[in-house]
Protein 1
Amino acid sequence: MSEEAATETETESASADGTMFEKSERPDWLLDKFNSAEDQAKGYSELYKSYSKKTDDLRKEIHAEAQNDYIQSLGIPDDIDGYEYPEGWDAPDEGVDQTLKQWAKDNNVGADAFKSLISDVYSKTQANFEEEKGKLGENADSRINAVNKWITKNIDENHYDTIRKVMSDASGVEFFETMIKNTASAGFAPDDVGSTPTSQPLTRDSIRREQADPRFGDDMDYTNMVRQKWQQFARQEELKSKR
């Protein structure tokens, strides 16, 4: 090899676009570990990707930790079974129960906040037993007991859940009282005080004697029975007038 060829080989270096740099012409910005601008650009690109991946992973990790700390600070249970009702409260039907708890979980409601929600909001949709009982008057207990006895005797247990909902307020009790009177006077269902019509026609005097009994007005069962007989007597007289 000639001296001129050796010198040319030693002084040449590849450029980014494939041209050759003489060593004396190598750019200052080209690091020694790279042979060309293309190699250096590729190296920077790989470095940036690696850095970006680590940054994204770190960001996700920090976000997860922050979210976990936030959830713990709110007292959010790990699952819906961690939600409990306030003391003295009975859980509603399973469907309502699960819906309430799942909503609380999905909306990051804490266990204590859930109890407060039930007490302050959901409770307003429920009937106040003492208030409803007051609407039935001084003989409320007697009226409720009379209805309960009739239901136990005449309604199948399969319908008890529905009846319990109807009987949750005063209007429900009054509804059953009306039904008891009407069915008894029509002879469809017996009550507990023997007001089902018999084959003997009723008379005004016999009913008046029963109404004069001290139990009338004090004993709700007895009072209802006498009132039902007056209703039966009125229908009886009406039928007679049409004959």
Note: The longest strand covers residues 12-14.
Protein 2
Amino acid sequence: MKLLIIGGGGHGKVIAYTALSAGHEVAGFLDDGVPSGKEIIPGIRCLGPVSAVTGIHGATHFLAASGDNNKRKEWFREFSALLPAAVLIHPTATVFPDVKIGMGTVVLAHASLMCGVVSGENVVINAGVVVDHDSTIGDHVFISPGAVIGSRCLLGEMTRIETGEIIKPGTSGNG
């Protein structure tokens, strides 16, 4: 897989390093706030602004990289018309075999998704997150590092869980 990353900020860097750790290539970044040609991580540059997409730069897949759920949702919808969204799982993450992960979702370092977890599209499951059994995560959700989601939880579309937050088993809610 050769990945085009939409967004060159901190989350974009994490996604790039995760892709490389998983043995994938990174075509580059698109970002409105970074000059074209500027190196974002060693050897990987900004290819231009998001707002002036001129091509897919040899990429086979894309990921929207923003901690802002609204922006990530907008980019996900826009770029889904051009390329397939990737599913990216860090090699140190634990993902049980029956877990279902939607397109455009990233599971970062040392995250754990237990049996029966279902994740929607364009979800960020950050480093060190634990999602216990039989929980459902809606589309465009952002779970910050170190959060713990108890069993049988339902996180509605666009929910944001903050760093270290603990969601008790059986909880349902929207962001």
Note: The CA atoms of residues 67 and 123 lie 10 Å apart.
Protein 3
Amino acid sequence: MSNESKRYRRAINIHGEAVEDADALLPDSTLVLGSIVLSTRYCSRHEFFFRLAIGFVLPFSALFSPPPFRIFTLSTTHTIMCRFVAYSGPAIFADDLLYKPKYSLVTAQSINAGEMSVAVNGDGFGIGWYAPELDNEPCVFRSIKPAWSDANLRNLARKIHSPLMFMHIRAASPGMTVEEVNSHPFMCGRLMFMHNGMIQGFKDIRRRLLRTLKDTAYDAILGSTDSEHMFGLFLNHIEDPFAEVSCDDMVYAMNKALDDLSDLLIDADIRQHSYLNLCVSNGSSIVAVRYTTNQDVQPASMYYAFGSRYNTGVEGCVIDPTPMGQRHSAIVIASEPVTARRSDWMKVERNCMMIVDESMRISFRNIELPVERRLYDGSVTVAEGAQ
């Protein structure tokens, strides 16, 4: 593949910072004007006028700025990404995670996400949390409303107090319906799961995927998203999601689910690339994945931060560093940094599994699937501009 066909790109996000790996973030049919990303994807009327207004207030000279700050392509393939955040540590209020951070999921990233192709995530949201003093199963609240306008979420966030929480804001993939059952996170028994990205060719593998599932995994799928079907593949390798599930069990199931997906994509001769940022928890540990089948670009962004505590006493929130000789007790995994101090955050490496076990120990494992090699060995030709 030539350098021209790779079309590596960079952009400036809404915070005035360089967006790394923009080729994985920016869809085709996208125009970057100065510090704003405008997309020609289908969107709601409100989002259209919001973007149009932003476009008019930008300096007109941005149209003539030299690369890499001005991008215009004509292909019609789109990559839509959601945003999520996961927290594990001493119990905090959901309000501390969703509203107080400088770049919080609700007040910032739902309207102006800094490191994705579609800045607005208004196709629903969900929050999931564990209350270990009550039982071992998560509780999930989901809605099709935009997170920024939901008064119920604001009120609940002040009362939800949990040591482990997931939050997800959705930008629906093309062709996917906006329904409550399609909002993340998903749950089954003691497990909670969310996804940022897209499985290309999903409609071509869906029927075959469902045929492979055991009854528990099959019955857990209530919606129509590729994300929830990926959860089904994961559940297929969990002996009993309603019983005790260890961190090792989740790592095994995640690896097997990725292998199964790879086989399905190869068998169906899917030529487009998939993006899989996944996160699953059993209430005491977290397994996260940052992955793409595309060897030429980075996956969608994923970061992590850890320290002695998640400090809401500082404006915009920060992660306090761990004193020398002590072990960290708080971990946050997010699509984008959310706190005021960006130095708190580190990027999860490409095609990597991040494991936070029951003792809060962090480890990483590389992921390499057969579908990657299949797309580049000449037996499958990648469609021009496919992402």
Note: Residues 85 and 334 are 4 Å apart (CA to CA).
